[in-house]
Write a structure and sequence with these properties.
alpha/beta, 229 residues, globular, six-stranded mixed β-sheet
Length: 229
């Protein structure tokens, strides 16, 4: 069995509040590659302080290649006492893209007619010039399988691993759908706050969810509204 002695704990962490999160009312924000706000930086430091206080260290750290996740990762690692630590920036982990809706007001896109169509299409809805949930799930899960789950080099090691993956709201929801196999209608029906932690374990028996959207470390910082941003 390829996973006979493999044991890996995953920490999926959503980025801190971005400039798009702080500017509500748009379907996909105005700037798809927006930076963190000052509040977002402090949220990232907060998750880092929590991890350091709990004695958590990571064998591998990955981030989406977008600015807000890179900044979150850097601030988190700094607060963990690892400033300057290198990590891989992964294009496959970026947020769902819908250029045709970028900067469009919610009320102009989400008309009653469109919402009916959206509900009928579900995970197969393709936004203008963009990606469906299904497409995002394929690219994120494909990367996860190639990089970690079916990586023969990692499988050869009998040492347990702890891996951090810093990503986005909707992309993470799509990836969790792949991991847990729940109904398509639930993909967007759970919250992932800014800088929340979702933990899973993978071993020879498969996936085990530990927690989703743990944000107790934010100390009064409310999570950002969950939307592709």
């Amino acid at each position: 069995m390829i996973h006979e002695n493999f044991d890996c704990e995953f920490y999926f962490i959503r980025h801190g509040e971005s400039e798009s999160n702080a500017t509500p009312g748009f379907v996909h924000g105005v700037n798809f590659n927006s930076a963190l706000t000052d509040r977002g930086v402090e949220q990232a430091r907060s998750v880092g302080r929590r991890l350091r206080g709990e004695g958590v260290t990571f064998d591998r750290v990955y981030s989406s290649s977008l600015v807000r996740t890179v900044q979150t990762t850097e601030a988190m690692l700094g607060a963990m006492g690892q400033p300057g630590r290198s990590f891989e920036k992964v294009d496959a982990l970026i947020e769902l893209q819908a250029p045709g809706w970028r900067g469009a007001p919610v009320e102009k896109v989400y008309t009653p007619e469109f919402l009916a169509y959206k509900n009928a299409k579900g995970a197969d809805l393709v936004p203008p010039q963009g990606e469906s949930f299904r497409t995002v799930q394929r690219r994120t899960s494909g990367w996860l399988e190639d990089e970690i789950i079916y990586n023969e080099e990692l499988m050869a090691s009998e040492q347990p691993l702890r891996i951090a993956i810093i990503g986005h709201g909707t992309a993470s929801q799509c990836l969790f759908h792949y991991i847990m196999g729940f109904d398509d209608r639930l993909i967007t029906r759970f919250t992932l706050d800014n800088c929340s932690i979702s933990r899973f374990r993978f071993n020879k028996e498969g996936w085990f969810p530990i927690c989703i959207n743990d944000s107790t470390h934010l100390n009064g910082y409310e999570g950002g509204a969950l939307r592709p941003s």
